[in-house]
Amino acid sequence: MPITVADRLAIHELISLHGHLADDGRPEGITDLMTVDGAYDVTDYGLGVVTGIDALVDLFRAAPGAQPRGHHVTNVIVTDLPGSDDSATVRSKGLSVMPDGSAGTVGYEDEVVRTSDGWRISRRTVVRR
């Protein structure tokens, strides 16, 4: 059975959560975004693949490199995975506003799974645009 409309809404809200956590400076909130064994692939930014919730909290706390003041997500596309009602893929675009007023964009390629705590990202790849 494909994921439901309610699942899609929950996934859209999950994808939106990243910007709020980053902009509010709440790295501990990553547990509401990623699975415990989640992988965050920031290879395009020279940081490799960061895996596991503790390492992800550390990454978000350290905020290496030039960090945006504002993270915004748009163009969210949720795709069911055949044979599973507990996982999906998600593509979205991130827009950022830098401290100097310049703007940038990235692509997010996510694998999401249903957990006992709701939907979470199990793998995110950040693609430099």
TrEMBL record:
<dbReference type="InterPro" id="IPR032710">
    <property type="entry name" value="NTF2-like_dom_sf"/>
</dbReference>
<dbReference type="InterPro" id="IPR037401">
    <property type="entry name" value="SnoaL-like"/>
</dbReference>
<feature type="domain" description="SnoaL-like">
    <location>
        <begin position="5"/>
        <end position="125"/>
    </location>
</feature>
<protein>
    <submittedName>
        <fullName>Nuclear transport factor 2 family protein</fullName>
    </submittedName>
</protein>
<dbReference type="Pfam" id="PF13577">
    <property type="entry name" value="SnoaL_4"/>
</dbReference>
